[in-house]
């Protein structure tokens, strides 16, 4: 106890916080002792949260950050025993405030959440009851008028949210710049300028849908030619030819597209141009890209999907709501810390979960002939589940193929996927998951007719 209480600042300054956030009894004791240095007595929840976040760098994996917020909630309740809600209620409000901060102050988030929507989303989540509306209004206005400030230890940020956690990087200080989606480190990612480059070449882009799938206005749908560079988990669209040592311009950064949790497919429903692929991003923007040839199109599809499969971190839980409105989970842009084998198991677990949800969702469909809010919510969730099932199936197949090849050489991986029955057959059978030669080759190198039938249904 004396050791823990004598060096509280070390936990703020030390980039490795394993001894604080690990899921064991020792870490719980360390966290409890550390939180004793915060006195939240008499503070409103938003002010207490601001105090904590300014002092503590909230970093690490999703589960680690979740544990930190639980410790914060316990400490807040201890300091305010006469509060109107429980530890679970404080934790719920804390998560809600952080999501609200992202919604109100993040870039390109779309329509901002209103105070009434914030209140409605929290209906029934105060241990089965409602939170006092006046308190929620105060919290909403506090976040709206003053965004949350985050304490970020740059060394920990560089390690835990690096573009690529790759042993190939040389030791030493790396030059880092940032593409920012707001003030929330749950979403922000650094751009390591020496991140691996997976592909570059000419692509012609057409914006098809903006965030949340809203159709792009007609004046912004035109085709534009770029020199595309897939570097780390970012697809840069540059006006000038790619030069490895050249710094990116502001225009290049503006056109950049994050491909974490994205899915690239052949645009089978677009016939006006040949060799067109469709890219759907984590925030459900949709782009069409025309490649110079069919071979190049398939190469872009494979490499985008492979990078997304390798480095997309596990999803955060869906935004807090009253269950009346469907909300997609928040997909972090930070890079996963899992090994490739663990990443594969994570995708397989998520695929099973989504498959079960698809089955459950189909058991009680509303009357689709009626245009009601319930019908629309059902349709949105159905569309989301089907897409996610396809995405995770693609990721699983690609990671299995990569692990089988036992190489990081993308040329070898492509060769292993494009052999077998030929490219034409590959193109015909991959509309749902076009980044992998589905069914043409099982892990033992032989076609499995049962597997083909299951994957192409």
Report on this model:
A hairpin with a 2-residue loop joins strand 4 and strand 5 (234-238). The protein is α+β, with helices and mostly antiparallel strands. Helices cover 44% and strands 11% of the residues. The longest helix is centred in the last third of the chain and has 33 residues, at 373-405. It has helices at residues 2-6, 8-13, 18-21, 25-35, 45-55, 62-79, 87-105, 115-121, 133-145, 154-160, 250-255, 294-311, 340-361, 373-405, 410-418, 423-428, 449-455; strands at 176-179, 189-192, 197-209, 223-231, 234-238, 257-258, 263-266, 276-280, 286-290. Mean pLDDT is 74; it is low at 1-16, 153-190 and 420-457. The chain contains 17 helices and 9 strands. A 7-stranded antiparallel β-sheet has the order 6-5-4-3-9-8-7. A two-stranded antiparallel ribbon has the order 1-2. Helix 6 (62-79) crosses helix 7 and helix 12 packs across helix 14. The termini are far apart.
Describe the protein's topology.
Blueprint: H1 2-6, H2 8-13, H3 18-21, H4 25-35, H5 45-55, H6 62-79, H7 87-105, H8 115-121, H9 133-145, H10 154-160, E1 176-179, E2 189-192, E3 197-209, E4 223-231, E5 234-238, H11 250-255, E6 257-258, E7 263-266, E8 276-280, E9 286-290, H12 294-311, H13 340-361, H14 373-405, H15 410-418, H16 423-428, H17 449-455
Antiparallel strand pairs: 1-2, 3-4, 3-9, 4-5, 5-6, 7-8, 8-9
